[in-house]
Write a structure and sequence with these properties.
Layout lengths: L1 E10 L5 H5 L2 E10 L4 E6 L4 H11 L8 H11 L5 H21 L2 H4 L2
Antiparallel strand pairs: 1-2, 2-3
Helix pairs in contact: 3-4
């Protein structure tokens, strides 16, 4: 099993606690290849509870499905101020994953 490290970045909304600590939201995941299953996730949110919530939400997600189902799940379960920033990060991560698959040699994709 090969793992990859993917990251997404977004500007944080002003006057949020996270914005006082960081300039940007950084969302990082490790995923199995080629299945696209997210194994772990972390982000630059202000509280451990928020970080844990996002980790639990993302872990197990299949990146082959693209960003829309995950963004829909986020919209139905996360009501914090960083929703749009998280959506942007998720799109970036899914774009990175798709690019890795496109650039993979045929023998790599079969593994």
């Amino acid at each position: 099993m090969q793992k990859v490290f993917l990251s997404g970045y977004a500007k944080l909304p002003e006057n949020t606690t996270a914005q006082k600590l960081y300039n940007h939201l950084v969302l990082v995941v490790t995923a199995e290849m080629p299945s696209g299953t997210i194994v772990d996730a972390d982000c630059t949110m202000a509280t451990d509870l928020a970080k844990d919530f996002i980790r639990e939400l993302l872990t197990g997600y299949d990146l082959r499905k693209g960003p829309d189902p995950l963004i829909d799940l986020l919209s139905r379960s996360y009501y914090g101020h960083l929703r749009k920033a998280l959506q942007t990060c998720i799109k970036g991560i899914c774009t990175q994953y798709a690019e890795i698959l496109r650039n993979a040699a045929p023998s790599d994709a079969a593994r």
